[in-house]
Write a structure and sequence with these properties.
mainly beta, L,D-transpeptidase catalytic domain-like, SH3 type barrels, 2 domains, 5-stranded mixed beta sheet, 5-stranded antiparallel beta sheet
């Protein structure tokens, strides 16, 4: 997923290889470097833990993960993961407040979204979907479904009961579409989330 806006790269989102963590994996600062964090086999929300693969160097994979923070990478041993790939990608244009669903580089759907308020903007950069969750389990405000992404809200949000993770989820009112209405999440109509 690429979230961009004015002054940011308009590079098309390209699906990245995906590493599924089979068991606890140490994440190093560089191949054979010091350990900066570990990734378990499951996310905090119970889904299988994955990481986006940026590069490969011998038996090591350079990866992105929410545990590392926005725009940071680490290295894991390739022997600790199962590899797969997806042809689906998402591209959010924060300035235009739209979200595109792409398959094989082609736009297959596009729809309006709401984005973060000025005080809690939607993070920009390259991220990936970490969890698909049922919205009602987490509260009526989330609508039918939640796509948690690897982006972290860097601004402190009083009373927010999450780990700062940003998501794509439902909205309270269609009047929110095209506005800055969230703590950084991207909000969409339920019909678009189901489609």
């Amino acid at each position: 997923m690429v979230a961009s806006g004015p002054g940011h790269s308009a590079t098309a989102a390209r699906p990245a290889p995906v590493a599924r963590i089979r068991q606890e994996a140490a994440v190093a600062s560089r191949p054979r470097g010091s350990v900066v964090t570990t990734l378990g086999a499951r996310t905090p929300y119970g889904s299988p833990q994955t990481a986006a693969v940026v590069a490969r160097r011998g038996g090591w994979l350079e990866v992105e993960s929410p545990e590392l923070g926005n725009g940071r990478v680490g290295w894991i041993r390739a022997s600790q993961v199962s590899m797969s790939a997806t042809r689906f990608a998402l591209r959010a244009d924060i300035g235009k407040r739209t979200l595109q669903v792409r398959f094989g580089g082609h736009v297959v759907r596009a729809f309006p979204i709401a984005v973060g308020r000025a005080a809690t903007p939607t993070p920009r950069g390259r991220f990936f979907v970490t969890d698909k969750l049922p919205g009602p389990r987490y509260g009526a405000v989330f609508g039918c479904c939640i796509l948690a992404i690897s982006a972290i809200q860097p601004k402190s949000v009083t009373g927010w009961r999450t780990d700062g993770r940003v998501a794509i989820h439902g909205l309270i009112s269609d009047r929110q579409l095209g506005t800055g209405a969230s703590y950084g999440c991207m909000l969409a109509r339920e019909a678009d989330l189901h489609g």
